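Hypothesis: this fold can be encoded by more than one sequence.
Test: take the structure tokens below, design a sequence, compare later.
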């Protein structure tokens, strides 16, 4: 019996050591450090979207200057997504290995540089169509690591009950960035030309990177380096990944994220066109500003609600599903109401409600990856976001085709509702929040 007892004891010790190794990777920030980092991550997400949306804001002016057709403009715009899909998994994997803070800093320096030199590239002797498409591709390539890195940072540095709130706060940055570059771009385009929009956003992003390097990352990276041996960052085998990705909670999370992102990119791309064509005499700033301002507020609300519920003892899995139900279930009701030919004011309210409730996803599926696999959250989120970006490209194109074919926006809003219901149903049925990366 002695060998059996020794074997059991050794197995228990080995299991405890594995769990301690995985736990050692998660070192939550002290509260003062967390407050500073969350603020900085909010700012860089804002600047990230400002840089990303600078081209769409300036597209009409640039098309006039360079004699681009609608097809040419579409080629330039789509260049971003091809680059964006390529670095998602790589960025997440690197973040899990060397720390998301370091990856965020390096990528921010890269895309800030591309943004700043975009006006110079446009005036080279090469065709502007080629240089601008290349710039957009590089922008997507470098920005593709951002959200997987955030997922890795959140999994390693933020406690379970705080993750929904933190991602909700950081998620505000994307909407704030759209508002910032939209307002800044509108003023600059009226007073000058399109070039300063890129230069200002690029220099602000470079300033952020310099400040983070000087004030924050040195200490964090030093701490990471002291824990960066092979035991604290074990390699996951192919078998591990296959086993993880075939589990129902992971598959349901991937599918739901794919559905959500497809709908989000479609609304982001086509909603302004819907308002311009349906309400040609309406003021553009109203439908370009109000929904995204509401989204900022609702993102904070969703994060705060998630934090409150978990803090008061609600099951994490139930909270994630509740947030996702608001994001893809209740929001779909407002999308369907847009099919009933509402007045302009009603349409703005309905669109704002749909987009605002959609931000509850930041406290649902977006942070579910931290629950299921914190040791490889960055890489797994990279897989999720790659699928989401590809599905977004397809649904954006297909929605435009449907509008051209049917001359009606009702079919688009109905299609988005169908996609939302499909993704939500799968998550409600198979989603979970129990950790799976220790098996």
């Amino acid at each position: 019996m002695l060998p059996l007892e020794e074997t059991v004891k050794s197995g228990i010790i080995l299991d405890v050591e594995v769990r301690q190794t995985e736990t050692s990777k998660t070192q939550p920030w002290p509260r003062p450090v967390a407050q500073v980092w969350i603020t900085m991550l909010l700012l860089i997400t804002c600047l990230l979207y400002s840089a990303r949306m600078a081209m769409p804001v300036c597209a009409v002016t640039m098309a006039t200057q360079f004699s681009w057709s609608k097809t040419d403009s579409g080629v330039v715009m789509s260049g971003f997504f091809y680059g964006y899909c390529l670095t998602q998994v790589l960025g997440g994997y690197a973040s899990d290995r060397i720390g998301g803070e370091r990856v965020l800093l390096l990528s921010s320096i890269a895309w800030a540089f591309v943004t700043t030199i975009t006006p110079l590239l446009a005036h080279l002797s090469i065709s502007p169509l080629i240089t601008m498409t290349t710039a957009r591709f590089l922008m997507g390539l470098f920005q593709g690591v951002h959200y997987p890195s955030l997922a890795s940072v959140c999994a390693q540095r933020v406690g379970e009950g705080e993750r929904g709130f933190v991602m909700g706060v950081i998620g505000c940055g994307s909407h704030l960035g759209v508002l910032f570059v939209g307002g800044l771009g509108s003023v600059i385009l009226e007073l000058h030309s399109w070039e300063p929009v890129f230069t200002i956003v690029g220099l602000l992003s470079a300033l952020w990177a310099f400040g983070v390097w000087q004030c924050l990352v040195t200490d964090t990276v030093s701490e990471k380096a002291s824990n960066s041996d092979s035991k604290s960052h074990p390699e996951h085998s192919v078998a591990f990944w296959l086993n993880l990705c075939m589990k129902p909670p992971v598959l349901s999370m991937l599918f739901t994220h794919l559905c959500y992102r497809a709908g989000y990119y479609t609304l982001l791309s086509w909603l302004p066109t819907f308002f311009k064509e349906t309400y040609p005499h309406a003021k553009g700033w109203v439908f370009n500003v109000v929904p995204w301002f509401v989204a900022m507020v609702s993102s904070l609300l969703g994060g705060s609600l998630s934090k409150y519920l978990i803090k008061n003892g609600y099951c994490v899995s139930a909270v994630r599903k509740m947030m996702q139900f608001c994001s893809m279930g209740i929001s779909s009701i407002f999308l369907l109401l847009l099919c009933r030919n509402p007045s302009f004011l009603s349409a703005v309210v309905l669109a704002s409600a749909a987009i605002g409730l959609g931000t509850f996803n930041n406290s649902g599926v977006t942070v579910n990856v931290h629950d299921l696999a914190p040791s490889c959250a960055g890489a797994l989120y990279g897989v999720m976001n790659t699928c989401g970006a590809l599905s977004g490209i397809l649904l954006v194109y297909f929605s435009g085709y449907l509008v051209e074919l049917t001359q009606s926006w009702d079919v688009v809003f109905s299609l988005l509702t169908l996609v939302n219901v499909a993704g939500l149903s799968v998550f409600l049925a198979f989603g979970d929040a129990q950790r799976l990366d220790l098996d």
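The CA atoms of residues 25 and 232 lie 6 Å apart. The chain has a mean pLDDT of 84.
Hypothesis status: open.
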